[in-house]
Specification:
mainly alpha; Tetracycline Repressor, domain 2; 72% helix; 0% strand; globular
């Protein structure tokens, strides 16, 4: 049976949405094609009509996750009072809500070690996605020159991902909140200056 282009696009979107969430919650290596397709309500055999390989799905899911994270950060920055954009991004990123939302949170905090072990071809594609992510957030990073902004971004954002990863490991909610609060204070003082 042939399906319309709209039906195929809808199924593609379902697969991508499920994969982006599942990979962040359980890891890309743990979430096999069969698991993703089942969660999307589709048969495993239909996967290759949408993606050439699991690596292609993985990269597309990382792209989706980075886009979601960047969109949320940009919205927070744009709705912040004048001069408080980066503060709003830091507060949003290092929030308890973000720490508790592995399936919809930062893909780096969820998958960085796994990303580092992927084949070079996959890592290069992810690096390009990270460049685009950085491009969306750089306008909110203080600095006189692009190099200065880039240096700050290159320390701040990976460091926040590390803190978020650590916070997610903490089982006691009050300890998790304490870590996130201290990290927010530190990064705001170091990068925003307030």
């Amino acid at each position: 049976m042939r399906y319309s282009a709209a039906h195929k696009a809808q199924n593609h979107e379902k697969i991508l949405s499920v994969a982006a969430r599942s990979f962040r919650e359980h890891g890309g290596d743990t979430s096999g094609i069969g698991t993703v397709m089942k969660k999307a309500g589709l048969s495993k055999g239909g996967f290759y009509r949408h993606f050439k390989s699991k690596d292609d799905l993985f990269v597309a899911a990382v792209a989706r996750a980075l886009d979601e994270t960047a969109t949320g950060a940009v919205e927070a920055a744009q709705s912040a009072p004048e001069g408080q954009a980066l503060r709003a991004v830091i507060e949003r990123y290092l929030s308890v809500a973000h720490a508790n939302s592995t399936g919809s949170g930062c893909v780096l905090a969820a998958l960085a070690p796994e990303l580092a072990r992927k084949p070079l071809s996959v890592r290069k594609r992810v690096e390009a996605l990270l460049d685009a992510y950085r491009g969306r957030l750089m306008p909110f990073v203080p600095g006189e020159t692009r190099e200065e902004k880039l240096a700050k971004f290159s320390v701040l954002f990976p460091s926040m991902a590390g803190v978020l990863t650590r916070a997610r490991m903490i089982s006691a909610p009050e300890e998790r909140e304490r870590l996130l609060t201290e990290a927010r204070k530190f990064f705001i003082q170091a990068f925003v200056g307030q």
